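ok so I'm stuck.
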Amino acid sequence: MAGEGTGTWAQMLAPQHRGAVAVLAGGTLMFAIDTYVTASLLPSAVAEIGGQAFYAWPTTLFLLAAVVASSLTSRVLATVPAARAYLVALAVFAAGALVGALAPSMAVFLLGRAVQGAGGGLLAGMGYALIRIALPRTLWTRGSALIAAMWGVALIVGPGLGGLLAAAGQWRWAFGALVVGSLVIGALVPVALHRARSDTSPGPFPLGSVLLVGAAAAVLSVAGLAGDVLVAGAGLLVALALLVGFVVHERRTRAAVLPRATFRRGSPLRWVYGLSAVLVGVSGLEAFVPLVGQQVAGLSPVLAGFLGVALGAGWVAGEMVSASAHRPRWRVLAGPGLLAGGTVLVAVTLVALDGPAATVLWAVGLVAGGLGIGTAWPHLAASAIGGAETGEGAPGDDAPDEGEADKASAAVTTVQMLAVSVGTALGGVGLALGGTDPLASARWLFAVFAVVAVVGALAARPAARGVPTRA
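replied:
not stuck anymore, here's the structure
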């Protein structure tokens, strides 16, 4: 890996790659826009179809279905050609969106969200898989940065589209737009992915792992909704036990979700996945930033919304810049430190300052934290994708293990989604620790995430060993 060099954005758009890149970008954009557009239009949807008591469940069911589906990506790709698998994912996603657009009640709407989550999870999982099977290794970090760029586009398009349609009383058309977008991307797939192949055997079905992952995701989603610290804390403990059980099961079974290289003695791959989970988990605090901005700083919903995307914007910017780096190991070491510094800055500001100056420092800290995630993420993702292709998971070991490569690609998304669930639940616990005082809740929220970020910075060195010294 060290001597292959780093590809350019021009190479990403070369004739032999542009079709796969367009499909990769489009599928990721559909999943990302859905994530943001639903949050912005949900109040209007609930006002029309009812179901106020189930307000949080459209997101919960979507995330649960996405986590389970993403963990099955490697088996789907090993069973059917990449083009057909991607068409199935788009069809399921579009079907769920269509149900949501036509839903006469909350029960039907929830069914649509679950179906859409299953399709979205497959799209997200196959995004990283397509990077491996449709692009040369020199373009893997660029491919990861492209995925981040689509999330950046969704940060703008999703809330804007949902807000405008909701204000016009036409929220259903947001889901209709996702159906149309899926059809457009689907029309490109047969030509764009006709050469993409995953030459692996399906292997045994990972039923035990999928059940454990699904149970953990369900518990974490519910725990993140709890307003009571004891309930949220108990949910975290139960979910942690399930995740420990998942790791133990993965070490012992042949029907695994994670590649075997993860558990080989001396392999840095476990640290790569672990640090990835910490970085993404800390990003879960952005879901609470608009609430803190309104309750503590007195910001308008619009300004609080912009503050809420500060971390995501920093992530996208950091990843686009870092994807061109020729010293990826240094980036993996520096990124978690920058995330920890930004998170600590916000936590300290909440204790020491107030007023406009404090709000500015919050924004600076959030952007810095996002830059830290984006600086490290593309190299961690590329190392995870390629880690299973080496016999011992160590840099420089070129013994191929192609049968595990799809698992490594899909596991990036599975770990990412589980980490978001953990981060959301952790944020719920932080808010609960502050009781009914918004300022105390905000202080606890960022203090908890600051501790996690600092732990991630301290654990960056062993993960960096799994990244080549030079791209």
